[in-house]
Amino acid sequence: MGIAESGNHDNRLYEDDWGERYHGLLEKKADGTDNYTAEANQTYAKNLKGKLLLAHGTLDDNVPPVNTMLVVDALIKANKDFDLLTLTNQPHGYGPMANYMMRRRWDYFVKNLMGAEPPKEYQIGGSVQRPIP
User: Fold this and answer.
1) Which terminus of the chain is more solvent-facing, meaning fewer CB atoms within 10 Å of its CB: N or C?
2) pLDDT per position as a tens digit, 51-61
3) Assigned domain for 95 exists
């Protein structure tokens, strides 16, 4: 069971200064791959076992949403089941939808690791009134 949020799934589609700093310059190999292929998650989508939740803000200003869509495409082509949550018009940290994502993350762990049912639509934060002890 796993969750990947706003994932930089392929450094070939991210900032060149990041990939080059940590992985070196992009070098093409004779077999058509390159030195970044082994780190690209879509390469391994066909091997998925268990549950996977992918999440991404549609206006992510750090990691382009296409990074997650590469993995989605590969999972579909491999006929794998997975869950996808797009947070509309949200940046990298999900802005005002961050508490919603936190709840969805917790729910996913509770359901898929504990085998329990989390409280339906539990609200995190906000203007919940609590009695003073």
Assistant:
1) C
2) 999 999 999 99
3) yes
